[in-house]
Amino acid sequence: MPSRYRYPLLRYPGAKSKVAPLLSSLFPIEFHEFRDVCAGSAGILAYVPRDARRWINDMNADVMSVHEFVRDDISAKQAILDMVRPLDTPDKRAAAFAEAKRKLEQGPDPLSYLLVNRLAHKAIVSRRRSKKGADSWLASLDHRYNRDNRHGLKALTASRVDFWAEALQGVRTTTADYTVPLTAPGDDVVCLIDPPYMLGKASGRLYEHDWSRDEHYRLFKLLRECPHKFLLTINRSPLTLKLYSSDDFRTPFRKGKGFRMRPREYLYTLSGNRHLEKATELIVMNYDR
User: Fold this and answer.
1) Which residues contact 35 (CB under 8 A, 6 or more apart)?
2) Where are the domains of the chain?
3) Which one, out of 19, 33, 78, 124, has a CA that is 20 to 30 A from the CA of 197?
4) CATH fold of 3-285
């Protein structure tokens, strides 16, 4: 299967589809179960052996509904193709975008969410609660979606949907807090942890469920006691360096195991910027391959 089909169906801030080959190469040589505890678009799943038990989790129920729709509904491929095919003009796409948002205000709808996700400005699609308790959607139309590339609407081809429908077969899906798959019992488990990054005020614009400093401290404490092997990706910031470069974390917390940390430079752009910025993320593991 060509590698282009491995790009996920959903766009997602901070998705790891480009670096999935690198991350998967850092997994233990042998493991029986893989858990993506903050899955998002779940792009890494394309590189996980199908004979392993697989569990993807994300608190964003709209995101997980798309994965489940593609996995479970035999009509999903045709429905997606029928959705995309008529949208051959900007006016039609704008109307479809508005209609999909209207449907989502009425309740969960995986097909509508997929359309809004593919067309939303920088994939920022968020359901937030207003003071009155009503749902409001944070999504603005991106007029650059017409590009025929992996991010464009045209990229939702039959072959790509087929690839993901097959890749998702047998995969457990949940919308629990990330601590559930991270701490649940299991044998020979490896967990991928890709939480919301510390990006200052921009974090709240990118993620449906933003993380505070307290949540990052909470994760740090859980990882010190984690019963499973894990691979964490997190951006380099004063807080993450304080936590994961500290002597406290360097102390082995699994018998015979310490941790390994390596930096990786990457380019990114935030909403409102037209130029790429260079940043560094940390890859932290508690095992030797």
Assistant:
1) 54, 55, 56, 57, 181, 182, 186, 189, 190, 191, 192, 228
2) 3-285
3) 33
4) Rossmann fold (3.40.50)
